Fold these 2 entries.
Entry 1:
Amino acid sequence: MINSEEIRKIFINFFQNRGHRWVPSSSLIPENDSSVLLTTAGMQQFKDYFIGKKDALNDFGTRRLISIQKCFRTTDIDEIGDERHLTFFEMLGNFSFGPLGSDDPSDYSFSGYFKNSAIFWAYEFLNKELGLRIDYVTIFKGENKIPYDDTSYQIWKKIGFDDKNIKAFGREDNFWGPTGKEGPCGPTTEIYINNLEVWNLVFNEYYQNQEGKLNKLELPGVDTGMGFERLMKIVQNTETIFETDLFEPLRSDIISKKPDISIRDLRIILDHLRGSVFLIADGIYPSNLDRGYILRRILRRLMLKLIKNNLINYIESFVLDIKNKFSSLYENLNNYDKIINVIFTEFKGFEKTLIRGLDKFDKIVKYNDNKELVEKLFMMYTSYGLPLDISLEILRERNIFLTEKDILFFEELFKKHQQVSRGL
Ligand code: GLY
């Protein structure tokens, strides 16, 4: 079966043969984008090329680039454990920065390209190179004075797609960006295989300013993103992303040590371990602020799951699995001692709280209604330091879910408590 290493090579070769230069992934700490905490997309390190501040031809000898970018997204952090969400993932992408050349897919030069080449190559890569069948594609239907993307429609038709396999959606679905408060953005065409959105082709025609106003970019660009784990799920025909080789040998290692682990716990450990290791390798330390807090949250949830499954003593072996899998691609994973130290220090600092919290949980969290439940969770926080997200996870394991109203009530209690502590 074809593995992820081979797919990386096929992707790189395919686009290198078409005038692209491969640029290594940037750090998870954005170097070029202070408006976001973490790198969430491949285009972030290239923002200055899209807006014409820098010239790709000068810096790379071509207006065509590709990358396999480490990304970390927090929007779905509470969904981790289901079959498709991830915090940390890798994204394959090809990029073009104007001025445009012929936009003919048989033009393998170094000039900029646009919709025609981008769509044709995406189709060629998936269909011809990997032998995959695209179910359907989506295009931008036009909304809020941004016109319908007839060009993409015509290109898909020319390739051979029927109207029923070209679906049009509005801004919510088929318009991407910017990352953070301002930046390049534009209509998209998205490719679906087995009902999974695999590849998002963004045509950066606009710049959204801080006020949310869209202005036409002087020169349009191409920014594509293909989730590697999703692609591998399709290529390797696995049940979910977690059975692909991108999670090996970690997954097998965990299962060999705890064969009856629940699927949800296994997925949380897989996601949070990879995420923590990559965040730490890029220089983030757990703290109560910004990126540090994101790391702290996932490390603490990870610890809960490792303790519950009697896996905490294997953490070194698990981190080693990740290092072995990825360090030839991401050299800073070789700082194994540092990564382990950061994890151990955080675990040590939280251990007492967690163990005492788990011990007290059932004795204290007895309730008749949700209001009382929230009050008890608040007590777990104020008296025993157990963070709400950990309490929510413990409840979730028992199929107990809080509503948005309950969370607001918790926040209200928290505010009142702060005012009392400050003597207000
Ligand atoms: N920048 C394209 C994507 O993240 O999907």
Entry 2:
Amino acid sequence: MPPSDHRPGTLIEGGAVFPHRHLTGIEGLEPHEITFLLDEAERWVDAAPGGPEKRLAGLTQINAFFENSTRTLLSFEIAGKRLGADVVNMHAAQSSVKKGETLIDTAMTLNAMRADVIVIRHMSSGAVRLIADKVDCPVLNAGDGRHEHPTQALLDALTIRRRLGGVANRRVVICGDLLHSRVARSNILALTALAAEVRVCAPSTLMPPAIERFGVTPFTDFDAAMEGADVVMMLRLQTERMAGGYVPSVREYHLRYGLTLDRLERRAPGALVMHPGPMNRGVEIDSAVADHVERSAITEQVAMGVAVRMACLDVLTRRRRGVEGWA
Ligand code: NCD
């Protein structure tokens, strides 16, 4: 963690500490800091529609999205608006990036706009950290390349916690394109920090080397991985990040790694099914599972996304808003 990110001794309600200026990843967060953000999100889950406090009134939030997104952009926009922020969206297609502007120039431009908080999605791993180091306001990572997607991991942890009563000691299987997935990386970091038992499953071509060092158990056999699972989290085949053939065919992939209702009922009948979206129905997940009323938590994940993003926007702007106890 670079020194610029660290403000030791910043007190927060309850005497806990959240010393980070930015949220660029789950990496570097202590377990109690993750729990703190989840606790903060809880208050927004049940907030009366139309009536949450306008804590960000008068602040400008820029959502700078250099890569396509539907749910994450919308979720950050709704979260900011519910808190009363002036939200501005910048899409790469309309920006100077297409004209060859460097990342540093983009950062300087965003900074000159005097935003109070910037949310960034970028196709390059590490781009968000680079921009965060160049601007004066808090920066939230909405997904950078294959690196991290911290708010996705937080919303997933919140969904598990609310559905299963906790994360610790729950057996979570993450199956799919682990090699290209920032969601997998952030989830592995968050779930292991919260003491879940994490199993990862993928064909060997899509399994990152030495993944055990993250404290997870790798499987290439999906049926074996699913045995006794409390949560099965499916990931999309990220074909846009693949150069060449990582899987023999989509049909073959579905046969070995697709979550069908039959497989779920045979291997982990009580498990909660999750997917960050967008889903490839019939590839990594069948509609019968994705739309399963009791088992699927997929729409709940989307709902939790707004609450988690409200919490992150609120917490990261407290110092700027002069909230008492936030040095
Ligand atoms: C993911 C992403 O963009 O990283 N989606 C999301 O944020 N909900 C996963 C993906 O693209 O497959």
